[in-house]
Amino acid sequence: MLQCRYRPEHSRIWPIDELHVRLRSGKVYGYIVENENRNIIALELTERRDKDVTARVLWMVNAEAGFTLDIFVSDGVSAYPSTIAEIMPVVRHIIVQFKAAEVSRRGSLVIVSNNLLERLNSTLRSWIRTFRVFKSLEAGSRTLIFLQAVYNILRFH
Known about the structure:
The chain is α/β, with parallel strands linked by helices. It has five helices and seven strands; from the N terminus they run H-E-E-E-H-E-H-E-E-E-H-H. The chain has one domain (2-148): 2-Layer Sandwich (Nucleotidyltransferase, domain 5), CATH 3.30.420.10. Helices cover 39% and strands 29% of the residues. Strand 6 (101-105) and strand 7 form a beta hairpin.
């Protein structure tokens, strides 16, 4: 599998966000985690948006990284703070909505924001729009895995 051969260069600040995707049976949520280097680390489609699903996505991210992150950046979804504190207790969770925040990290100031991830959401939405509606959750998941590989490997970013 193409995705298994490509190992993105990881950074220590990762934003997380959700994306709404249409299925024939209704709307589902896509969780997206991207690193500072603009590589998609995790893409998960799910029918719910709750603490259990968030925990599954964070376990995927933790396994992919292989190290402890410094900062997780998110919007104000209520499932994130408690789940991140439970699964990754040493990781700082920064909530930013529309304005970037300055955060101290390892003795220097770092500007964190969700803007790059929101831009990625726009790119994924435009790609997904060509499919109109996915037949099933499985078909949508397979397509997003393919789009993740295309974005990480073929696309200049």
